[in-house]
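Why does residue order matter? Because the sequence determines the fold. Keep that principle in mind as you read this record.
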Amino acid sequence: MNWLVKEEPTHYGFDAFVKDRKAAWSGVRNALAQKHLRAVTKGDRVFYYHTGDEKAVVGIAKAVSNPYPEDKSEKYVAVDLVPVERLPRPVTLAEIKADPAFKEFPLVRISRLSVMPVSDAEWARILQLAKS
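Structure:
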């Protein structure tokens, strides 16, 4: 599977993630985002999206764990991610919204969601846009 995770760059930008070389993706509280996080499996590809002023897909990460309980309550899960690479150029939300290929993409339809699936076609299109 492919996923997209969102983070405020002033809170934990892609450069900080690269410097740390690994991060536990935790703190997700939205029920639908938690459902998606529970579906992540080790080896899945993940787009890293900067929210806030930037609003762009900026990098690629990989899940290196299956979901595990975030704390003793086991109400929420976390997943370990490692950075893979920065995209050649960021792909902005404006570009994504303007492209008919993304009409069903959760990033366009449910913009507040912090963890969401990405279809193979959407993944390929974002990579294509990043290289243009």
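Residues 24 and 80 are 4 Å apart (CA to CA).
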